[in-house]
Amino acid sequence: MIGDWYRSVLFRFYLVGGASAVAYVVLFVLLRSSMPAQIANFLALLISAIANTAVNRRFTFRIRGTDAIVRQYVQGLAVFTLGLVVTSGSLWLLHIWIPDPSRVVEVSALIVANLVATVVRFLGLRRVFTPE
């Protein structure tokens, strides 16, 4: 049975993740209008991942202060790399399958890729923010 603390963390993680996903999609669409898909994906994911790490640190996992902050951000960026591999790979495969997909198709592929990456990201961030 899942404890109250774990349910609370999971609920807050979903809230932050939902907001981050919306921010990522908005950033991707805005950036995509002026640059290639892979670059727009990288920048949108990087910006939203840094913000996501900061909010998860404070809001989801209730960590205050600067103890272990460098380690947590470095590990958070490692988790970001996993998301980048999943989303970049999905864009690469999409562009092989459909050479000039619409923005709706690109965003749809990225949403599916991000759902997969989110599960892994939660498991990774849970380890990052757990005291040693």
Shape: elongated
- What is the helix tally? 4
* Element-level helix/strand string: HHHH
Q: What class do helices, strands and sheet pairing give? A: mainly alpha
Separation, N- and C-terminal Cα atoms:
24 Å
Oligomerization state of this entry? single chain
Mean pLDDT across all residues, rounded? 88
Low-confidence stretches: none
Spatial extent as radius of gyration: 16 Å
Number-wise, the strands total 0
Task: Let me know the largest β-sheet.
Answer: none
The portion of residues forming beta strands comes to under 5%
Give the fraction of residues assigned to helices.
Answer: over 70%
What would you say this structure looks like, in words?
The chain is mainly alpha-helical. 82% of the residues lie in helices and 0% in strands. It contains four helices and no strands. Helix 1 (4-32) packs antiparallel against helix 4, helix 2 (37-60) runs antiparallel to helix 3 and helix 3 (69-97) packs antiparallel against helix 4 (103-128). The chain is elongated. The two termini are 24 Å apart. The mean pLDDT is 88.
